[in-house]
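Q: Phosphatidylglycerol--prolipoprotein diacylglyceryl transferase, please. Structure only.
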Amino acid sequence: MINLSLPLLALNPIAFNLGPIQVHWYGIIIATGVVLALILSVREGQRRGINEDYFYDYLLWALPIAVICARFYYVIFQWGYYSHHPAEIIAIWDGGIAIYGAILGGILTLYFFCRARRISMWTMMDVISPALIMAQGIGRWGNFMNQEAFGAITSRAALISQHIPMWIINQMDIGNHYRVPTFLYESLWDLSGFALLMLLRHRHHLFKRGEVFLTYVMWYSVGRFFIEGMRTDSLMIGNTIRVSQMLSLIFFVVALVTLIVRRRRIDLPWYVNQ
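A: Structure for Phosphatidylglycerol--prolipoprotein diacylglyceryl transferase:
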């Protein structure tokens, strides 16, 4: 019988090898989240009368652009390093992408895509938002496999007291120190947001067009703001401002103000009636 009170070896971030190519669990987990998000978006899109091909076409554009923007975002805020190592800017396989960069890239792509297809961007964002936050929650487990996106040094006893499963606690032994599993906190927050949006999205006269998306922005921003404050690998402006906290605050305020203004000034259809 295995004694779970003793530390175990960290999980291998490499899932398997295809000849000289190493397939990482991170990529498998991210791809799983993307596929599930696509399936959910297509199903909801059918309810809204949106051609399912639009989602496939959008994904073909959004995925590479989101990855490029995620890398660009990361490089900008680590320019002190990359300005001296320009050859490493494209070395995305060594890590260094930021979810906010990916989200911004995805939204920018959606804007031009919806204009080209002459469909409502707000409706598309409403459809995609719950699936997106679900994919984000799943994707954080890629950080778990890579032993990244963690917080400050803590103790094994402190982690046990939070009723965290032992297989997660063992993976939080990083550099001979146990770390706060901020990846776990964010994953649970995201998946809770997914459950909430799925539960409330079709409630009669609760959301108007665009408000599912705005609720997603506010929910994610609140969680990311507080969880980012616990992380030790934050991108920084100077030595005091965490970039993701600053953006979370901005996004929350903008989403809240937009929701209030649209409710007061624009006669919008209810989401369930679109």
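A: Brief note, in case it's useful. Residues 56 and 224 are 29 Å apart (CA to CA).
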